[in-house]
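Supplementary notes for students who missed Thursday's class. We covered one full example, reproduced here. Read the sequence, then the structure, then the short commentary at the end.
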Amino acid sequence: MSGDLIVCGAFALLFVVMGGFLLAGRGAWLIAGYNTMPKKERERYDKRALCRFMGKLMLFCAACMLLMGADSLCPGQGLRLAGTIWLVIGAVFAVIYANTGGRFLKKKPRKER
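Structure (token representation):
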């Protein structure tokens, strides 16, 4: 068994565990920008929605890591490059998605007329 496969598998397992915490809505302490905000600022955000998004991102990262590790089982197929490209695309998408449109801000209740 190759060392690359072991390392990529370990990171994939770590991402799956972190993704599980986040999907359950209990891993907000794992989100660096969120847990360093002042409490007043954190109250503006929908913690559950933010955690679920980050959990899905962690599972995507785990899949990319497994793809990179699979390159040691089937060398010459370009799986490491494919996993790296997908990981970069996912990270860029996540940054753009999370920082546009105020998706994770709590919705203010509408006032009835």
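Commentary. Helices lie at 3-23, 32-35, 39-42, 47-70, 79-99. The chain has five helices and no strands. If anything here is unclear, bring it to office hours.
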